[in-house]
Amino acid sequence: MSLDRRRFLRTAATGGAALTFGALGAPAAAAAPGGFPDYRYVRTLLTPGQLAYNPTGEIIFPCVRGVYDKLTSPLGRYYLYYAPHDAPGGICLAYADSLEGPFTEYPGNPVVSNDWSPHYKVSHVSSPHVMWNAEHRELWLYFHGENTTTRLARSKDGIHFTYDRTVLTTSMLPAGTTEASYARVFRHDLPARGAKYVMVFMRNDTTNHRDIGWGWSPDGLSWQYAAEPLIDHADVGAVNVSGAHLLSRGGSTYVVYHTDKASGGNILITELGNDFSRRTHLGVFYDSSSAAPESGRAAAPCFGTDGGVPYMIYEAGDRLAGSIALARG
Predict the structure, then answer these.
(1) Phi (first) and psi of residue 10, to 5 degrees
(2) How many whole angstroms separate alpha carbon 91 and alpha carbon 48?
(3) 3-state secondary structure (DSSP) of residue 263
(4) What are the sequence ranges of the domains in the chain?
(5) What pairs with residue 198 in β-bridges?
(6) Which residues form the signal peptide (predicted)?
């Protein structure tokens, strides 16, 4: 994406306020759309080459959770889940006492593999999203394998998981859907739908353009799914969008998601409203740098706060050739 195009999107998103751009096209100092922090890259947290479990030389889709106030005797204050994507994949864990690291790889990785008898045997499992379920006092892991199927496993300690069920398949979506993966689940009330949880995920179909789909649930177990996408790739000028994450700010709800590198490689933001009735596209939430490690692509963000400081943990670099990085707000 050109610097002029990035400037246009950022200016539109901030209501026409002029922005000053510094090195590598990054805005010098400005709030992100919606009043969110202006995240800046700090450091790389994990690279495949440093990991003992490294079957494919690539890792994706980080999910960080503070567990110090939830688990008894955790390995560290924060658990970071991630995975290779290509076969055999495997859901992995690293832990640290600070979101800025250093993170230590759990020696028993993967904590969930692609062969879990008698529940499934698939080519790969990937895209871990872990949600703290306060009602059950468990960490609930949503993950995919194959790309057509999203599954749920549950844990009392964040390390040892019990398989629960399949929660999403392409057969639950409109005809022609070919992928239903990269799901994240959030506690969010939708009273009109009798729902307490919302899922956002990537869906693909026979046109081979990826959109953000969504669903809702009363309990995080049984789900209903919208026929129309939450974010249509064409509506935001992208070829593909994926890696969605919900955020709240100022009494409203937003979804952030990344575009493929051909469409700019940035993280975009759309306001949904608390009832998900809006589709106000606000432009660029995080503008990827051309410099390493991002090299023109930032993707699959997750968020946390440590000592009152907001952080974003995300994929940095080309798909299946990048690292897990940290940005600070």
Answers:
(1) -65, -40
(2) 14
(3) helix
(4) 3-328
(5) 186, 216
(6) 1-31
Q: Which residues contact 301 (CB under 8 A, 6 or more apart)?
A: 243, 245, 256, 258, 267, 286, 312, 313, 314
As a whole number of angstroms, the distance between CA 20 and CA 38 comes to 13
Work out the number of other CB atoms within 10 angstroms of the CB of residue 108: 11
* Tokens representing residue 183 in the block: 């799901």
pLDDT digits (tens, 9 = 90+) for 47-72: 999 999 999 999 999 999 999 999 99
CA 60 to chain centroid, in Å, comes to 10
pLDDT in tens, 141-172: 999 999 999 999 999 999 999 999 999 999 99
Q: Please give the single-letter amino acid code of residue 75.
A: L
CATH number of 3-328: 2.115.10.20
pTM of the model: 0.91
H or E element at residue 301: strand 298-306
Contact of 121 with 149, CB cutoff 8 Å: no
